[in-house]
Amino acid sequence: MIKNKLNLYLLQYAINSILRQKAKNLFIGIILMLLVSILTSVFLISNSIKYELSLTVDALPQIIVQKIKAGRVCDIDANVVDGILEFNGVTDAITRVWGYYYFENAKVNFTVVGIEQFEKQYKDNFENIVKKFDFDTLEANSSMLVGAGIKKIMTQNYYNNYFNFVKTDGSFKKVYIGGVFDSSTQLESNDIIILSKDDAREIFGMDEDKATDIVVKVANPKEIKIITQKITSKYPDVRVITNEDLKLSYENIFNYKSGVFLAIFSISLFTFFMIVYDKMSGLSSEEKKEIGILKAVGWTIDDVLKNKFYESFIVSFIAYLVGVILAFGFVYILQAPLLRDIFEGYSQLRTTFELPFVFDFQTLFLVFFLSVPIYISATIIPSWKIATLETDEIIR
Amino acid sequence: MIVLKNVTKVFEQNQNNQVIALDNINLQFNEGELIILKGVSGSGKSTILSLIAALSKPTSGEVIVDSKRISKLPDNFASIYRRDNIGFIFQKYNLIPTLSVKDNIALPQIPSNPDEQELQKSLSNVMKRFKISHKKDTIVKNLSGGEQQRVAIARAHINNPKIIIADEPTANLDEKLSLHFIDMLKELKNSNKTIIVATHDPLFFNLDFVDRFVEIHNGKIN
Q1: CA 20 to 30 Å from B84, out of A125, A341, B123, B178?
Q2: CA distance A291 to chain B (A)
Q3: Shortest CB distance from A390 goes to which of B57, B84, B111?
Q4: Is B56 on the interface with A (CB under 8 A)?
Q5: CA nearest neighbour of A180 among A159, A206, A209, A205
């Protein structure tokens, strides 16, 4: 039964045809492979970023209250917390002490976060960190916890046990490395330093009764808007940012990146369709003659088209497979050099940022349908046009 | 039996460059006959062969082979008819130049998906018969004209067809090779196949083993 269905001689003939036109098929295969590789890379990076952003956005506080002075964000009085807690619906209000510290040697920004072990933490990750590490010892020894990426950068710059922060008054603050922590996302574990609020205030030159901002938790997410209005009414000198606002700003940045991807995607598709158009525009005289000869010796139109299908499927599917494998290697092993440069400058994503592995069948199917069937059609349609002519006309 | 009944073939019909290749022809070829179609270039010999082989369709009239109206066959059925009944030796051989001798000869068998052993046996027999076995793996474009013709003849025989058609078989051969082809033709005659040769080569005109000569002139039978 199988023998009747699958004609292995036709398959063999198709492979033979590919090998007979080695140079041409190799060239088309390489171009197709590169296009598949670029397209898949774009989709894989896009998926990884989306995944990473979704984790980041989920971890964002519901409301952030910042003090504005002369149109710029400045330190907020810690006692504003008491006023916010008076509003119905507010379950918690926590001061945050944090900021960026620019490390000149490595030309990177560290995110320095101060936390108090007995306070309620505004992030679950910090609760875990407080439980996991001995904060009494850390505070007593003026030590800090660093993310894996920071530890790597510090070690590269010979800060194996401690780091000297330059304070706002120009003096140094020596802080020991008390441990290296992990968190649920790559983004945090790489560029965050956690130390006591007192040490953080000292590094940033902040008064004891001040905080960077206040994080507010609301029981019912539907009330966020009303509570925001109440806060701004009571404290006209503050700016209130909701997680929806932050989500939008992340999405805007991501949409910009998507635009760049779209450009690369469009160029790849354009190149692919140029090849398709070229193929559709007709067969060479040798190819036409071969179809004529095959028909003259008894091949039916179906036989000719099956042969062309096998030929184009083998070329395009191999190109697709190699292209996809290359894309996975390029994105997840090499971390997408060149394409990754597009992300640089985005404050949440550092040069040490690693693209998380996201395997998405839909992406693979999409790239497959954008490449293999189109290439097969581009091969079969002109062959069909020729094969349906009168045989005598083709070989004449 | 092959019958051409009131066959007319017009190329580029209703256009300025319209050509009437065959004009209301009636012809009959009996089984086992060797017929030479004579005539100058452009007289319509090749068109008759093309119609018998179902490579083209008549503009009007009918081509009947063994009681089947092959001129009415749809394209796919015409291909199957050709595969089962016709061995065509083209003037320019029409081989695929980048394939080996063996692969060229096997071409008519591929669509039938034959058993591997049967195919190898047929190939071996036909290559031996037409003395091309020693070149079986040679790429056809590297063969001489005479060798290419032997490959074309072998290919025409691989399916053991009832009808052998040869279109100007000696047009590209020197006299020695042409005489060699005539020897092969004599041998083929003994296999009780219907053989139709279109030629204007005088070497064919005095052959004693030919059953009939048919002369074509300007698309008509003289």
Answers
A1: B178
A2: 10
A3: B57
A4: yes
A5: A159
In chain A, how long is the greatest CA-to-CA distance? 96
Contact yes or no for A144/A199 (Cβ under 8 A): yes
> Are B155 and A297 a contacting pair at CB < 8 A?
yes
Q: Would the CB atoms of B99 and A293 count as touching at under 8 Å? A: no
Phi and psi at residue B2, in whole multiples of 5°?
-110, 130
Note the residue count of chain A: 396
Q: Rounded to a whole number, what is the distance in Å from the CA of A352 to chain B's nearest CA?
A: 54
Please give the helix or strand (H or E) that residue A234 lies within, else none.
helix A224-234
* A40 Cα to chain B: minimum distance (Å): 37
Out of A58-62, B61-65, B139-143, B207-211, which region has the weakest mean confidence (pLDDT)? A58-62
Nearest to A296 among B80, B88, B99 (CB): B88
Average pLDDT over residues B129-134: 91
| Residue A251 Cα to chain centre, angstroms | 12
Angstrom distances, CA of residue A263 to CA of A2, A40, A207, A331: 46, 14, 49, 18
**Full domain range(s) for residue B162:** 32-45+80-221
Cβ proximity of A194 and A80 under 8 Å: no
> A72 and A228 in contact (C-beta within 8 Å)?
no
For the record, the structure tokens of A283 come out as 């067969």
In a domain, B103, yes or no: yes
Cβ contact B102:B136 at 8 Å: yes
Place of tokens 């028909």: A295
Nearest to B98 among A20, A298, A303 (CB): A20
Q: How far apart are CA A72 and CA A74, in angstroms?
A: 6
Average pLDDT over residues A74-81: 93
Contact flag B83-A297 (C-beta cutoff 8 Å) = yes
Exposed / middle / buried, residue A86 (Cβ in 10 Å: 0-12, 13-18, 19+): exposed
Nearest CA in chain B to A290: B96
> Which residue on chain B is closest to A291 by alpha carbon?
B96
How much is the pLDDT for B172? 81
Number of structural domains (chain B) is 1
Give Cα B112 distance to the centre of its chain. Answer: 20
CB-nearest partner of B79 from A8, A293, A299: A299
Q: Are A202 and A167 in contact (CB under 8 A)?
A: yes
Distance CA A24, CA A36 (A): 18
Q: What CA–CA distance (Å, rounded) separates A84 from A63?
A: 11
Kindly provide the ipTM of the predicted complex, given to two decimals: 0.93
Cross-chain Cβ contact A390/B56 below 8 Å:
yes
Flag whether B72 is in a domain: no
Q: Which of B69, B65, B85, B71 is nearest to B22 (CA)?
A: B71
Q: Looking at residues B202-206, what average pLDDT do you find? A: 88
Q: Are A62 and A217 in contact (CB under 8 A)?
A: yes
Checking if the pLDDT of B30 tops 70, the result is yes
What does the pLDDT look like over B146-194, one tens digit per residue? 899 999 999 999 999 999 999 998 888 888 888 888 988 888 888 888 9
Nearest residue in A to B47, CA atom? A392
Q: What does residue A178 show for φ and ψ, rounded to 5 degrees?
A: -95, -10
**Do the chains contact at A395 and B94, CB–CB below 8 Å?**
yes
Where residue B98 sits, what CATH number does that domain have? 3.40.50.300
Say if CB A209 and CB A76 are below 8 A apart: no
Q: What is the model's pLDDT at position A350? A: 45
Of the pLDDT bands very low, low, confident and very high (cuts 50, 70, 90), residue A371 is: confident
